Amino acid sequence: MRVTCSTQNLGQGLHIVSRAVSSRTTLPILNNVLMEATPGKLRLTATNLEIGIKQAIDAEVQEEGSITVPARLLTDYVSANPDASISMTLDKKNQSLKLKSEHFDADIRGIDPADFPPVPSGTEGRKVQLSQADLKDAIEQTVIAASSDEGRPVLTGVYAQLNGGHVTFAATDGHRLAVKTLAVPADGQQPDTMVIPARALAELSRILKGGSEQVDLTVAPQKNQVFFKAGDVELMSRLIEGTYPNYKQVIPNDTTTTITLKTQDLLTTTKVVSLFARDAANVVKFKAEGGKLTLTANTSEVGQNTADVEAKIDGNDLQVAFNAKYVLDVLGIIGADEVTLGFTGPLNPGMIKPVGKDDYLYIIMPVRVAM
Amino acid sequence: MARVVMHVDLDAFYASVEQLKHPELRGQPVIVGGLGLAGERGVVAAASYEARAFGVRSAMPLTRARRLCPQGNFVPADFAAYRQASREVFRILTDYSPTIEPLSLDEAYLDLTGSEALLGPIAQVAAGLQARVRSECGLDISVGVATGKVVAKVASDLRKPRGLVIVPAGQEAGFLAPLPLSRLPGCGPATIARLESFGIRTIGQLADMSEPLLGELFGKYGRVLHAHARGIDPTLVEPPGEPKSISREVTFERDLLDQGEILSTGRSLLLDVAESLRGQGLAARTVTLKLRYQPFDTHSRQATLPVASDRDDALLEAFVKLVREHLEPGRPVRLIGAGVANLEAPAIQLDLLEARSGPRSGLDAQLDRLRQRFGPTAISRGTAVQHQQKDFRRDDIDAVSSGDG
């Protein structure tokens, strides 16, 4: 293998794929990045067996071949290297990679690529095309609600349903639920459902650009893997097995108190008020009374903080308490200037929706407190 | 000025209340415990003095009590009646001092320091209190008065029933000296056995031991023991405030090896704790486990919950995990304790899915109501087998301090 490429391209490519490199592994080769030189392209691949990321970068390939080398060292070396281009030559006998640039000569010990686990591409299976910006939004708006508790693996994923005409993403940790729907061209097929690890989607959203370029979502025919392809980057993830809870039944049909207000006002006020809730389970109380919305937090040892927020209130007076984090999480990513809050009582789920959009819904279960 | 601390103890309380309820039982041996079913397992919660003459004692298995006293009247515990009677007695106590520390339904400390000007000489005050409780509640009490809690308690216990013992300031050590070790609160069978191996039989001999030696033998507790033996106990009479923690523990009659039995005892203790936690309108961030293998080989472990909870299932899960992690297999266990700490007003995060918090927390409340109405044996979770050594008196502390019982 003999290949030359721009240091910048190589650095960017390594930066992307190395997100899939295991941080803790007992299998040394999983610390490595697989480099494959094919005509005109250098293909980089990394995997932690749960997800795999591939990126092809433009390169001048004098001789095809492949090797795996420690991803961390190579990434750090390339990103610190000030030279414009790097030439890499494989010493096949010693399985080591020689890197030569204007000022530097390096030699990195590698491992035989035959030992590298296969990272398949999504060539077969049901395919859906989405815009990168839409998918990125959908991921950011749902992964916040996924659980980090490995005790219930299915909740650590995002549920996705491919349906004729739309794709729905939903995530819940049992305390809140986020549901996003994207419109797609109808393909006349039966609905398909899957649970994608939230971690894989979070990595994908880092890779996705916010533009109108397309991303292909492909479900493996065995329904055990999902593939995303965006330009030169591919991400493969295993799917989580198990039955996802029927989240639709917790979505309130109706609300008895509706509050509309500026997203930024609610965000700032909740943030300030919640400083006083840090030692009290992070609980902020919302009180809608006489056309006024008041937020309160108090901790006996710390003190208390109260704020009025400008809002339009319809329906019954109400007091309800929430974990401030759950409120702040959604306001940061809801992507609308105004939001509507809908409540039916202090012990019933509360709903947050962007004003003027029907594609997103966030439900929070209240905290039961003495009011 | 020396403090004046009074210890008040109702004589054979549960049994006396039964005799009040059922006049035909007066003068008869009465044994309270279990559900009143023939042949049931369970322990004696209380025995009347008539029954004690047959050798029946608290915490003794009912089957043994039946053998010792076949003509005894066995009655199930009626906690509602005991709480009611206790409230009436405590109402009288509040006329004597604002500083009352309830220990259980039938026991309390009163701080009467400086009350002489108001109430008169302490001997008259104590006798007057006994007479009032007798005439207004129909119950007998024993009273001990001293400068500290420990000596006052020893004094009230000395001449039961209807005892009245006053230990003047400065005579505490002399008062305690001739008494056997078993009279000293906190001096249990294990401590006594250890001390006897050094030839120590009386509280006076214990007081004469060197403090470093006691420290060596019993750790920190040794120093406390030494002070108590000399009649020194500076702890204050403390009215119940906001509890900082709630716990229950059980000493097994015989050391236990059976892990399942140890765990199920721990579970039922924790469920008791959870019930009083809810009774006081609190939630806990921390769950604690106490295990004692040998005397003075006691281990305490704790786990912190992600959010404060007052729910049986959340607290139990953490507790069972603690037991599984820390119970050393193959070591006989003498004592297990379960508790909660880091208490706060409950801010319970409700659950969206499968309505986990709705019906389940409702279930806890339902179980609580059933147990309050029919007593602690009325209903329990399948895995929490009723342990035999349940210390009813510890339950009562919460019943009293939570106000309404």
DSSP strand (E) fraction of chain B?
15-25%
What global shape of chain A is seen? elongated
**What is the CATH topology descriptor of the domain at 245-402 in chain B?**
Dna Ligase, domain 1
Shape of chain B: globular
CATH class term of the domain at 245-402 in chain B: Alpha Beta
Helices of chain A, by number, come to 6
Can you list the strand order of the major beta sheet of chain B? 5-6-1-7-8
Largest sheet of chain B: 5 strands, mixed
Q: Give the terminus-to-terminus CA distance of chain B.
A: 36 Å
Helix vs. strand class of chain A:
alpha+beta
CATH class of the largest domain in chain A: Alpha Beta
Structural write-up:
Chain A is 17% helix and 44% strand. With 371 residues, chain A is of the alpha+beta class. Chain A folds into 3 domains: 2-115, DNA Polymerase III, Chain A, domain 2; 126-248, DNA Polymerase III, Chain A, domain 2, CATH 3.10.150; 251-364, Roll (DNA Polymerase III, Chain A, domain 2), CATH 3.10.150.10. In chain A, the strands form 4 sheets. A 9-stranded antiparallel β-sheet of chain A has the order 14-11-12-13-26-25-24-18-22. In chain A, strands 6-2-3-4-17-16-15-10 form an 8-stranded antiparallel β-sheet. Chain A is elongated and about 80 Å long. The model of chain A has no long low-confidence stretch (mean pLDDT 92). Among the domains of chain B are: 14-78, MutS, DNA mismatch repair protein, domain I (3-Layer(aba) Sandwich), CATH 3.40.1170; 173-229, 5' to 3' exonuclease, C-terminal subdomain (DNA polymerase, domain 1, Orthogonal Bundle); 245-402, DNA polymerase, Y-family, little finger domain (Dna Ligase, domain 1, 2-Layer Sandwich), CATH 3.30.1490.100. Chain B has 16 helices and 13 strands. Chain B has helices spanning 13-21, 49-52, 62-68, 79-93, 116-119, 122-137, 149-158, 172-176, 189-196, 203-208, 211-218, 220-229, 259-279, 312-326, 357-374, 392-401; strands at residues 5-10, 30-32, 46-47, 73-75, 100-104, 107-111, 141-146, 164-166, 245-256, 283-292, 298-309, 333-344, 348-349. The radius of gyration of chain B is 22 Å and the shape is globular. The interface between A and B is medium-sized, with 22 and 17 residues. Strand 27 of chain A pairs antiparallel with strand 13 of chain B.
